Predict the 3D structure of the following.
Amino acid sequence: MEFLVGAKAQLKLDVITKVEQGKIPRKQARQILGKWERTLERYIASFRKEGVVFVRHGNQGKKPRNRIDEDLKQKVQALVRNKYFNFNMTHCLEKLRDEEKLLIRAETFRKWCHEIHHVKRKKRRRACIRHYRQRMQSTGLLLQMDGSPVWE
């Protein structure tokens, strides 16, 4: 069985194997992993039961439950390319909801549009011209004002 192992999983595997071989004490293993005693016990029990595969997450290799069907994705992308090719993304999404009765989240639709390069760039506005204030002619001139009432 082949699976990918990250750096954290590799560290966990190394520490648990060393604990099992008696090379490092459990207290030191807890400090290295930053886990409680109960979690360390679960890791050791899983290691004894499953072997090195215990580091693999249970959902690895499975499809997400909330994944949208590939056929729907292809249908939406075809509609965007052929029927709604001249619409912006917001208007296109509204048309898909109203006319085609397809309910898609905006972020999902945006990702699908990026995949088929349907996204149009925003038009850039010309930079406004800035007029800077001219400096005073006299160097070192400082105007001081006092707002306190004058007492005679």
Q: What stands out?
A: Residues 7-55 form one domain. The chain has six helices and no strands.
